[in-house]
Design goal:
Structural class: alpha+beta
Strand order of the largest sheet: 7-8-9-10-11-12-13-14-15-17
Radius of gyration: 19 Å
Distance between the termini: 23 Å
Shape: globular
Largest sheet: 10 strands, antiparallel, barrel
Number of strands: 17
Helix content: 10-25%
Strand content: over 45%
Number of helices: 4
CATH superfamily of the largest domain: Calycin beta-barrel core domain
């Protein structure tokens, strides 16, 4: 396990987030993305798997609600061909909640999809503009189950560690009387960020408020599907740079989970997916 340097650490773990990103500067861009969502639903409902896949960039990715990831347009086409085969195709409706931009050529769309006789799902789609045309670069969906409660994260309370021969990362989670979880992040023993997790009274969502030691601030919200927790974060570095990412916590056992990140951006530039890090619960005698 290699612990990233501090400047990338906050992006990799979502520790500096953005409270809000501006709406699309150009009305025509938002109109185009909304029209593409309509055309996507029509192609899906018609069983036209290739047209559906063509909404993705050639190097795009799609992660379904079960956590399966498909990389590249051809792989995505095979996925939709399998689920849309046959003479009867489920009718799909797409409801866009919001569209925001990272820069003139990157936009983030969030919403829900409802397919006939299938479950309603949340989605987050990152769009890129290439040669004047918008494509989906990364899309992730999660089942729209009931809202998670703070108590659903009680398994996280305690002290966790990941380390190799050169570096160590500690995550300390405490329960506060004010109905929040308090999380401290340390790299090589140095505090680099603090996080508070609780229910946002505005929308009832399980939400994080994050404060990095270098002045970055941010927010994120959580969804849960089985043993997989997904944390969707937006960020604002102290330098003013905007960033965002999707983070997964996959519970392996009561004493271990894997933490990784994808769909990472800073200042509109895409970053590689973060390397998976396995966190292990410290023995009680080690906890401080």
């Amino acid at each position: 396990m290699r612990v990233p340097q501090i400047s990338i650490f906050f992006i990799a773990l979502g520790l500096s987030a953005v409270f809000s990103l501006p709406v699309l500067a150009a009305d025509s861009d938002e109109t185009t993305i909304r029209k593409q969502a309509e055309d996507y639903a029509k192609a899906f409902s018609a069983g036209d798997f290739q047209t559906v896949a063509n909404f993705w960039a050639a190097d795009g990715t799609f992660t379904d609600a079960d956590g399966n990831k498909y990389s590249g347009r051809e792989s995505i086409a095979r996925y939709f061909k399998a689920i849309l085969s046959g003479s009867m195709h489920p009718s799909l409706k797409v409801k866009i909640d919001k569209i925001r931009q990272l820069n003139d050529s990157v936009a983030v769309e969030e919403g829900t999809t409802v397919a006939e006789n299938l479950s309603e799902q949340n989605y987050l789609a990152v769009h890129v503009k290439r040669d004047g045309q918008w494509f989906m670069l990364d899309v992730m969906e999660t089942n729209n189950n009931s809202k998670v409660k703070l108590s659903d994260l009680s398994w996280l309370i305690g002290d966790w560690k990941a380390e190799d021969k050169d570096n160590s990362m500690d995550v300390k989670v405490r329960e506060l009387e004010s109905k929040f979880l308090s999380v401290s992040y340390l790299v090589n023993g140095k505090l680099v960020a603090e996080e508070k997790i609780g229910i946002n009274p505005k929308n009832g969502l399980l939400t994080s408020w994050i404060f990095s030691a270098n002045g970055g601030v941010g927010t994120a919200y959580w969804v849960k599907e089985g043993n997989l927790w997904t944390k969707m974060a937006e960020s604002y570095e102290v330098s003013g740079l905007k960033s965002g990412a999707v983070y997964n916590l996959k519970v392996l056992s009561p004493d271990s989970f894997v933490w990784n990140s994808s769909s990472r951006y800073i200042a509109g530039n895409r970053l590689a997916d973060g390397k998976a890090v396995q966190m292990v619960r410290c023995a009680k005698s080690e906890a401080k």
